[in-house]
Amino acid sequence: MAIDPGTAERAAGGLAVPERDVTAAAARRRRLPLLPLAIIGVFVLVAILAPVLSPADPLSQSLRNRFKPPVWMEGGSTAHLLGTDRLGRDILSRIIWGSRVSLAAGVVTVLIASAFGAAVGLVAGYYGGRTDAALMRITDATMSFPVILLALILAVTVGPSFTNVVVAIAVILWARYARVIRGQVLTLMSLDFIAQARIAGAGAWRIITRHLLPNTLNTLVVLVTLQVGYVIIVEASLSFLGAGIPPPTPAWGSMIAEGREFVTSAWWASAIPGLAILAVVLAFNLLGDWLRDTLDPKLRQL
Amino acid sequence: MIRFILSRLVQSLAALAILSVVVFVLARTTGDPLHMILPMSATAEDYANARQYLGLDRPYIEQYFSFVGKALTGDFGTSLRARRPVMELIQERLPNSIRLAVFAMGVSLAFAFPLGILAAVWKGTNLDRTAQVIAVLGQSLPTFWVAIVLVEFVAGRLQWLPAGGISGWSSYVLPGFTLGWFVVAGLMRLLRSGMLEVLDSEYVKLARVKGVVEHRVIWLHALRNALVPVVTFAGIYFSILVTTAIVVETVFAWPGLGRLAYDGISSRDFPVIQAVVLTTAAIVAVVNLGVDCLYALIDPRIRYAR
Amino acid sequence: MTRAKRIVPMLFMSLALLALAAPGAVWAQAKGGDLTVALSSFSAETLDPALQGHNVKYYLSLMFDYLVGTTPDGQPTQQGGLASKWESSADHKRWTFHLRKGVKFHTGDEMTSEDVKFSLQRAMGKRSTTGYAGPLRTLIQDIETPAPDRVVILTKEPTLIIPVYLSRALSTEGMVLPKKYLEANGDDVFARKPVGTGPYKFVEQVVGSHIKLTAVDSHWRIGTPKYKNITFKLVPEETTRIALLRRGEVDVTDISRERVKELEKEGFPIHLRKDEALVHMWFVLGPDGWVPPVKDKRVREALNIAIDRNEIAQSIFGGRAEPAAIPFGLSWSFKDVGFKVTPEMQYAYDPARAKKLLAEAGVPNGFALDMHAFQLPGFPEGKAFAEAVSGYWEKIGVKPKLIPVDYPAFRKLWIDRKAPGATGYYNIANRDWIGTYALLEKQAYTPSKMTDTVADTEVDGMIAQVMRQTDQQKINSLMRNIFTRLRSEHYGVPVVYIHSPYAASKKLGKWNPGSVMYDLYIDELASGK
Question: B173 or B119, which is more confident?
Answer without folding.
Answer: B173
